[in-house]
Fold:
Amino acid sequence: MWHLLEPLHAVLYYAPEAFEEAAALGYETADRWPSYFAWRAAALGPAGPVRVASAFYSFSPGAVARHVPAAWEVAAPADVLAARLRAVDRTYRTLLGQETLDSPALAEAAALARRAAEAAGLEGRPLAAAHAELPWADAPHLVLWQAATILREHRGDGHIAALVAAGLDPAESLVSFAAVGAAPEPVFQSRGWSPAAWAAARERLTARGLLDPEGTVTEAGRALRDEVERRTDELAAGPWEALGQEDTARLADLLGGPWLTVIGSGLLPAENTLGIGKI
Structure:
């Protein structure tokens, strides 16, 4: 379900319509990071860099501080949230077309996804809780995007808990993720860690026996990452258990068409830190 829903959320960070909305607010759009931090953190209110870095986890504190709280000097969080919905509306209209947006199938998918999102436990899940507090939109395609956002942040919050329990700090989480082949190391440079910080994280993992001296993952390191992913799945299961097997399978069927459209659009990069591939 994460694999089906994540692209429907993440297209916001790459769509031309979203960059146009960000530019209209006053954000620089030469790269995606000014709008990314604004779009994703706005639900937290005018949060400072420490709180955003804590919630986002894998970004270096320096990378966060370059964009927060400067984001709120450009536009207030409430204005960012309104523009974000406009961006999603425009993006979905472009990608999916009005006929799909008006279809009973999409309305059914939105209702099922909302039920799952509203069943998500929010204890210790700051980003999921912040998005769950936002009012629901009326249009089904915006409900679908909001539900996908709550569910992905719910899963992400749980993933952070699993990383913390495994003793993997933010930099170590990326170094170990790259070591098991999730994506090439250069892809993770977007998270803002300096070469020295990356090397230090690698040294700490090597000292724990999770990497060998050449930086290759060891059996113990792979087992730890497997445990993190297993625990992440367990912590993300609640909404789907509440929705039930039959309705979850129905939602998966309904999401197939939109998922193929978004993945096939070419907007999402082929190599990324999300674990989403191209068809």
Remarks:
- The two ends are 17 Å apart (CA to CA).
- Residues 2-24+78-164+230-264 form one domain.
- Residues 5 and 148 are 6 Å apart (CA to CA).
- DSSP finds 16 helices and no strands in the chain.
